[in-house]
C-alpha cells in the first residue's frame, strides 16, 4: 500500500469504529429517546477536546460464533478531553454494540482510562448504558467488572468519580457507580437495580415496573442511590459539566477558585445579606427555607444542590464564597422541622467525607431541634447511622465553619460541626438557641411537680408559659455557649457572607493531621 492508501485505510477503519453497531441500531437508540455514546461525549466535553484511545480494540471471544461479530471499539468509547479547559477521563458505553454489554476487552478499555486518570490526577466520568455482563463471555466479563470495582476503590478519595446512568444498569454492574462519588440519572430512560422486575416477580411475587423499581425518581427520592436527576440527556450532561467546575481534579489539588467577577456578575465580598432578616421567622417554631438563606449568602446566589429529593430535612451542595468552592450543609426547618434522621445522616455523612477527601471547606448552617424520635428510627439504626455523620464531621480536617441560625439542641448540636469536634470558626445569630433540649420538653422534666400543682390549681397554661419564658431567657440564646467559647462570635445575620469569607481566608493554610493509622472504622 502506498502512503496515501495507508491513510485512506486508516480513515476507513476510523469511520467503521465510529459507526458503532450500524445505522439500524443507531436509529433504535434515538427512537428510544437516547443519544449515542459519541453524541454524549460531544455534549459533555469542550468542543474538539476529545482524544480517543483504543478505538480499534475488539473482543477476544470465539464462543457462540462471536469471532464473526467483531466491532471496532467493542461497545465503549474511551479517552480524555476537557471541561472548562480542565482535563477529565471519560468512558461512554455504546448500547448499539452488543447492548453496551461488558466483555473482557471492553472492561480493559475502561480500566486503562481509569489507570490513566489516577496517573494524571484527573476526574473519571463514566457514561453508563449497558445490558451488563456480556453473556457470551461468561466469567471473563465478571472478572472485568471486578477489575473496575477494584479501581473504583483505589481511585476513591484520589480523583473525583462521576457516574452518569443513561440506560440500563443492572445486576452487579450497579456496584461500580455505587462506589463512585456522584450518580446522575435521566427521567424515563435510565434505571438501576440489582435484580430486575422478572426475577422479583418469581421470587417475591411482587409486581413492579422497571421505572418504579429503579428509575430516576425512585433513586433520587426513595433509595438515595442517585444524587442528581435531569429531564433529558442534554440537561444531564450540562449538569455534570457544572459539577466538575466546582471540584478539584484530585486530592492534592485545590478546588478551582473562580476569579473576581466584574460588571453585573460581580458579587462583592462584603455584600450585606439583606434577605436573611426577612427569611428568619420571629417565632422559633415556624419553618423557613434554609436554601433561601444559603442563596442569600453564597456568590451570586448559585447553589448546586446534591441529593435534592432525598432526606429533604438536610440540604447539602456546592457553592462559592469569594470565588472559592465550599461544601454547604444545612438543616432544613421546612422539612421534618430540620430533625436529623437516618436518611439525613447518610446523606450528610457521605457529602462531608467527599468534601474532606477533596480539600473543599465545609460551611454548616445549623437549625436542628434534635434527632427524629420514633421506633422506625430506632429500629432502623439511627444510633449507628447518626454516628456516621458525627464521625464524618469529627474526622474532617478541611476548614470547617458553622453558623447557628436558630436551634442547636441535644446531640445534634454536637454533631452539626460543633467546636468540640474541631470546627474552626463557629458563629451564631442572636436568634440562636443552644441547649440540651427545647423549652417545652425541658420544663416538663425540670418542673414536673410545679406543673402538676399548677394543673390542680387550674392555672397550667399560665404556669407553662411562665416557665417556658424563664427557660428561654436562660438557655434559648447563644450567650451561654458564647460565654464558654463554644461560639466564637455572635454575629449580625447581615454580615454572614463577609464573616464566612474572612474566616475562609484566615483558614486558607490550615494544616491538620489525624493520628497515623491504616484507616479508621467508621460505623458502617
Ligand atoms: C450480550 C446483550 C446483552 C448482554 C443486551 N445484549 N444485553 N448481548 N450480553 N448482557 C444485546 C442484545 O442481544 C441485542 O443484540 C442488543 O444487545 C440490544 O438488546 P435488546 O434486548 O434488543 O434491547 P432492549 O429491548 O432495549 O433491552 C435491553 C435490556 C435487555 C433490558 C438490557 O437486552 C436485557 O435484559 N439484557 C440482558 C441483561 C442482563 O441480564 N444482563 C446480565 C445482568 S447480570 P442485537 O444483536 O439484537 O442488537 C450482570 C452481572 C454483572 O451484568 C456482574 C458484575 C459483578
**Share of helical residues:** 40-55%
How is the CATH topology of the largest domain named? Answer: 2-enoyl-CoA Hydratase, Chain A, domain 1
Number of E-type strands = 17
Approximately how much beta-strand content do the residues carry?
Answer: 15-25%
Shape: elongated
Distance from N terminus to C terminus (CA atoms, Å) equals: 62 Å
Question: Could you explain the architecture of this structure?
Answer:
This protein is α/β, with parallel strands linked by helices and 524 residues long. It folds into two domains: 32-246, 2-enoyl-CoA Hydratase, Chain A, domain 1; 267-438 and 476-506, 2-enoyl-CoA Hydratase, Chain A, domain 1 (Alpha-Beta Complex). The protein has 21 helices and 17 strands. The strands form three sheets. Strands 10, 11, 12, 13, 14, 15, 16 and 17 form an eight-stranded mixed beta sheet that branches. A seven-stranded mixed beta sheet has the order 1-2-3-4-5-7-9, sandwiched between helices. It has a two-stranded parallel sheet with strand order 6-8. Helix 4 links the parallel strand 3 and strand 4 (124-128). The longest helix has 17 residues, at 104-120. The chain is elongated. The model has no long low-confidence stretch (mean pLDDT 95). Bound molecules: hexanoyl-coenzyme A (HXC). Hexanoyl-coenzyme A binds at residues 25, 98-99, 101, 131-135, 142, 145, 168, 170-173.
Amino acid at each position: 500500500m502506498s502512503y496515501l492508501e495507508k491513510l485512506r485505510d486508516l480513515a476507513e477503519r476510523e469511520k467503521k469504529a465510529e459507526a458503532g453497531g450500524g445505522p439500524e441500531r443507531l436509529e433504535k437508540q434515538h427512537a428510544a429517546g437516547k443519544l449515542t455514546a459519541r453524541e454524549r461525549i460531544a455534549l459533555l466535553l469542550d468542543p474538539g477536546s476529545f482524544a480517543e484511545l483504543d478505538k480499534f480494540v475488539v473482543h477476544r471471544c470465539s464462543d457462540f460464533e462471536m469471532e464473526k461479530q467483531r466491532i471496532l471499539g467493542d461497545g465503549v468509547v474511551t479517552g480524555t478531553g476537557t471541561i472548562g479547559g480542565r482535563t477529565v477521563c471519560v468512558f461512554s458505553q455504546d448500547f448499539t454494540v452488543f447492548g453496551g454489554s461488558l466483555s473482557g476487552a471492553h472492561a480493559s478499555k475502561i480500566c486503562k482510562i481509569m489507570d490513566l486518570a489516577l496517573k494524571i490526577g484527573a476526574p473519571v466520568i463514566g457514561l453508563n448504558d449497558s445490558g451488563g455482563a456480556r453473556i457470551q463471555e461468561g466469567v471473563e466479563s465478571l472478572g472485568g467488572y471486578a477489575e473496575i470495582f477494584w479501581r473504583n476503590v483505589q481511585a476513591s478519595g484520589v480523583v473525583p468519580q462521576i457516574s452518569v446512568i443513561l440506560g440500563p444498569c443492572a445486576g452487579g454492574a450497579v456496584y461500580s457507580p455505587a462506589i463512585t462519588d456522584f450518580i446522575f440519572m435521566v427521567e424515563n430512560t435510565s434505571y438501576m437495580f440489582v435484580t430486575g422486575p422478572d426475577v422479583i416477580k418469581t421470587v417475591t411475587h411482587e409486581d413492579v415496573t422497571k421505572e418504579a423499581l429503579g428509575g430516576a425518581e425512585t433513586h433520587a427520592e426513595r433509595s438515595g442511590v442517585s444524587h442528581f436527576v435531569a429531564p433529558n440527556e442534554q440537561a444531564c450532561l450540562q449538569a455534570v459539566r457544572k459539577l466538575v467546575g466546582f471540584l478539584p481534579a484530585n486530592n492534592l489539588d485545590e478546588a478551582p477558585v473562580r476569579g473576581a467577577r466584574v460588571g453585573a456578575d460581580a458579587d462583592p465580598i462584603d455584600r450585606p445579606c439583606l434577605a436573611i432578616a426577612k427569611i428568619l421567622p420571629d417565632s422559633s417554631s415556624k419553618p423557613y427555607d434554609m436554601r433561601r438563606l444559603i442563596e442569600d449568602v453564597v456568590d451570586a446566589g448559585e447553589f448546586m444542590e446534591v441529593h435534592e429529593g432525598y432526606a429533604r430535612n438536610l440540604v447539602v451542595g456546592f457553592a462559592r464564597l469569594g470565588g472559592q468552592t465550599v461544601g454547604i450543609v444545612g438543616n432544613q426547618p421546612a422539612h421534618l422541622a430540620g430533625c436529623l434522621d437516618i436518611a439525613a445522616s447518610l446523606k450528610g455523612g457521605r457529602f462531608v467525607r467527599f468534601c474532606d477527601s477533596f480539600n473543599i471547606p465545609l460551611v454548616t448552617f445549623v437549625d436542628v431541634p434534635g434527632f427524629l424520635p420514633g421506633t422506625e428510627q430506632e429500629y432502623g439504626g439511627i444510633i449507628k447511622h447518626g454516628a456516621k455523620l458525627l464521625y464524618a464531621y469529627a474526622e474532617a480536617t478541611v476548614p470547617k465553619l458553622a453558623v447557628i441560625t436558630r436551634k442547636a439542641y441535644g446531640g445534634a448540636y454536637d454533631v452539626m460541626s460543633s467546636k468540640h469536634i474541631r470546627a474552626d470558626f463557629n458563629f451564631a445569630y442572636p436568634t440562636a438557641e443552644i441547649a440540651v433540649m427545647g423549652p417545652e420538653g425541658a420544663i416538663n422534666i425540670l418542673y414536673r411537680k410545679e406543673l402538676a400543682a399548677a394543673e390542680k390549681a387550674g392555672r397550667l397554661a399560665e404556669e407553662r408559659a411562665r416557665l417556658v419564658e424563664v427557660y428561654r431567657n436562660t438557655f434559648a440564646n447563644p450567650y451561654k455557649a458564647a460565654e464558654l467559647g463554644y461560639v466564637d462570635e455572635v454575629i449580625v445575620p447581615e454580615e454572614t457572607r463577609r464573616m464566612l469569607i474572612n474566616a475562609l481566608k484566615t483558614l486558607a493554610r490550615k494544616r491538620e493531621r489525624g493520628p497515623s493509622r491504616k484507616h479508621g472504622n467508621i460505623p458502617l
